# Entry
Amino acid sequence: MQFQSPVKIRIGEPYLDALADEVGDRSWLLITSRGWTTRHLVDEMIGRLGRPVMVIDHVEPNPRLSSVLAMGREASRAEAIVAVGGGSVLDAAKGIAAVHALGPEAPDQIARHLKGEALLPRGFAPPPIIAVPTTSGTGSEVTRWATIWGDDRRKYSIEDPALYPTAAILDPGLTMTMPPEVTLASGLDALSHAFEAVWNRSHTVLTDLMASAAIDLIVRNLREAVLQPQSRRRREAMQTASLMAGMAMANTRTALAHSMSYPFTAELGLPHGLACSFTLAEVARFNFETHETRLQPIAKGFGCDLAEVPERIEALLKGLGVGEALIRYLPADPLAAIKGDLITPSRAGNNIRPPDAKSARALADRAYSTLAGDRPRPIFEAAEKTR
# Structure
């Protein structure tokens, strides 16, 4: 059994105090999104840490390779990279760090790496990354990879042990400005990571324990975090759940639900958290048929009998209004609109029960039909009315 997490995790202290300690007297580059600049978070950091060598605050959602390369070329060199934002910002920071390390050879070497033709070179040494997540879902603050989208709308991963952040700073106060829809989608992303770590060929006792604890926290707190966005207790619970699910997934990787999600995001624009979660009940049924006991950690997280797991997942998704959210983004027959394959071997191959292209499409079709036929208003709508 192996379990790895070289990231220093700082929880329970104001992020500025932790950042000042981690950056010290080193020069630093800040990577964030425009919203944090307009909300004066950058000014707060400068007041405490001193001025960075540069601020890059135009990271796009689902960063593309061409964008990451451009930001890497424009970025000033620094002794540390501070990444403050959601999963896209943290992933972009890892990509920019890689460009720093690879220099003029970066475009060719990264392109070959993303296509699976080569590892990053021996001695690859990007600047250390200090990750400050402002959403609770991706787990990028504790993984060695970053999701980068090609301009061909295909999903790729850049990966190397040197891309683990050196430190992750978790301050739930930074997540309180998440819009309700982002709170829901990011929480569902974390839930998917936990499930995928369980029905995974690479699961371990430790990943099972972390996944089960994360599921328990998400089931008890996600709805309330959407409806009570200023509840520090709910935000802290979701941040902890995301961290544990991320650490579990960092050791197992994702599996079938994520494999099926990529075309829904790339081709139809469905947000990742919805795309990787709406099939979870059907994937649970698929795996239950051949590996019933493997779902025990999920049953423990829900506090239910093993046989109830698929129905509990489905009820949770329905109760959150996921079906109506899907209808907002997808055409009436989304499977007919998708041209790409739902099987990504590097992800689907991790599933405890081997799927094929036909079974994957059938699972996704059943999941959509089941949830789209049940159309309660998404809970983020109610939350928006109270903001």
